[in-house]
From TrEMBL:
GO BP terms: double-strand break repair
Organism lineage string: Eukaryota, Metazoa, Chordata, Craniata, Vertebrata
SUPFAM superfamilies, A to Z: ATPase domain of HSP90 chaperone/DNA topoisomerase II/histidine kinase
Database matches in InterPro entries: HATPase_C_sf, SMCHD1
Protein name: SMHD1 protein
Length: 209
């Protein structure tokens, strides 16, 4: 890399965890992206891009939530799909010490290229690894295996509160991907972890598949 012998540097994951001799085997696994930086908290000079490859079940997009939503006893299924998206925000904001803010915006102009539904919250944010894992199909947010870093990691069901305030409002529990592709053709998630200066963006579209 052309690093001078007297120059200090660190190697980190995209979550800014420094790679050391002790944690190398734990953090450096197949397909992981690493940063070579002067310091762990160094500001990136430009955006980085990473392609996520995984083999999804064909039902991931073909039948996303269709069975559950259309079997909703004749009720309008759209509120159930929105509930799945709001459920994610309720989980993300469950440990906020201040105000929990969740906004739902219906965008009918071309600001996003086409009409869109935006759910915005002030939760703890997701790391790049959590966004990556969000693409994995049919993994319960409460039962994860090994060192799988969940988009709901750290979530604890709150003490008895109105159902509207905890993360159990999703009617079918089929997850955000099913909700997204029931409503539209693509998902874009933008997130900044609370303890990081980095902003991560993830795009999953039916066209890509």
């Amino acid at each position: 890399f052309g690093i001078a012998s007297d120059e200090n540097f660190v190697i980190t994951t995209t979550n800014r965890k420094e790679i050391t001799e002790d944690n190398f085997s734990e953090l450096v696994q197949g397909g992981v992206t690493l940063y070579l930086l002067q310091t762990v908290d160094q500001t990136l000079l430009s955006a980085t891009k990473e392609r996520i490859d995984f083999l999804p079940h064909y039902d991931t997009l073909v039948k996303s939530g269709m069975y559950e939503y259309y079997a909703s006893e004749g009720q309008n299924p759209l509120p159930f799909a929105l509930a799945e998206l709001i459920d994610n925000s309720l989980s993300a904001t469950s440990r906020n010490t201040g105000i929990r803010s969740i906004q739902i915006k219906l965008l009918f102009d071309d600001s996003q290229g086409k009409p869109a539904v935006a759910v915005i919250d002030n939760g703890r944010g997701m790391t790049s690894k959590q966004l990556n894992n969000w693409a994995v199909y049919r993994l319960s947010k409460f039962t994860r295996q090994g060192d799988f870093e969940s988009d709901h990691s750290g979530y604890v069901r709150p003490l008895p509160v109105p159902r509207s305030l905890n993360s159990d409002i999703s009617y079918f529990g089929v997850g955000g991907k099913q909700a997204v592709f029931f409503v539209g053709q693509s998902a874009r998630m933008i997130s900044k972890p609370a303890d990081s200066q980095d902003v991560h963006e993830f795009v999953l579209s039916k066209e890509d598949f």
